[in-house]
Amino acid sequence: MSQVKRIFQHDTKPISKGAVLTFNIPSFEVIDDIVLEFLNSGAAATKANILTSIGKVALAINGEQVVNCPISGLYNVYASLGQEVTQNINNVIGLNIGRYLFKDPVTEDYFAYGCANVQTIQLQVYCGATITNVTDLSISTIRRNFQSNLGSYIKVINYPQNMSSTGISSVDTLPRDANEAYLSIMAHANGGTISQGECVVNGNNIYDPMSQAENDYICSARGLAPVSGVFNYSFSDGSIKSILPMQGVTELRLKTTFSAAPTSGSYDLLAVSIRNVPEAMMKAVAA
After folding, report:
1. Binning pLDDT at 50, 70 and 90, where does residue 81 land?
2. CA 124 to chain centre
3. pTM for the full predicted model
4. Contact 258, 163 (CB under 8 A)
5. pLDDT higher for 239 or 253?
6. The CA-based dihedral angle spanning residues 11, 12, 16, 22, taken in that order and rounded to the nearest 10 degrees
7. How far apart are CA 155 and CA 41, in angstroms?
């Protein structure tokens, strides 16, 4: 059956200092992506101005947070995709980012928002205290015309961590939901310097202690791209098997070493995960 991908324009709102822009997105068919376009009096706003003018972006489906992170984090996830997204992302950015980690388009199509059992889709965009040459935000969706339940979808959630000194930040508080699997967890130095990272799952090292340079190489070798100031605990190489399921996981510990402390006394752990892992992927992982 043909699944032509159609684009629908929904709403445009003006941007103002300190405002929270709320968009209620119509729930119908299957949504492949929700697209934000930032404008400056009808022209494209610059990425630099968007980053200084816009704070957090939050997407909730049926009340559950699917995206909740600074817009800078969204740009960094796109930057990490390297060869998978060949053009620069400037004033237009989509929210269903993680699906582009997969090299097989059939696998990508697992990860969309089926609306048959969805009552509400709400997007909130938080404007900064200072707005520079960003006047409006326009919302559109990419859809396929068939009926499906919500099913499997990608989450991008930020988990801020306190860190006001040099040394190791050891974190074992990220969610370990049996219905989820991690693709990537990105530690943002936030003005500091990350020199090393280590990941332990149920007492076993998934990442032995490795330098930032080695992490950058591993990301590059997987077709991803290093991002300045980010240590990417990447569990994906684009294949259907390369996920870190949380079934039976009681410990997910990240040990991130700072040789220079974050300037604000905190840093971001931005997690890209799959909610409701498709049966085909779980069978592939088990095989």
Report:
1. confident
2. 16
3. 0.93
4. yes
5. 253
6. 10
7. 32
Q: Are 17 and 125 in contact (CB under 8 A)?
A: no
Q: Which residues contact 186 (CB under 8 A, 6 or more apart)?
A: 73, 76, 77, 80, 227, 230, 231, 232, 233, 268, 269, 270, 271, 272
For 18-39, the pLDDT digits (tens) are: 999 999 999 999 999 999 999 9
Question: What radius of gyration do the chain's Cα atoms show?
Answer: 19
- Strand-strand pairing, 153-162 and 180-188: unpaired
Residue 192's closest CA among 162, 166, 210?
Answer: 166
Query: Are the CB atoms for 185 and 268 separated by under 8 Å?
Result: no
What's the residue count for the chain? 287
Rounded to 5°, the CA angle 157-162-163 comes to: 125
CA distance 57 to 24: 14
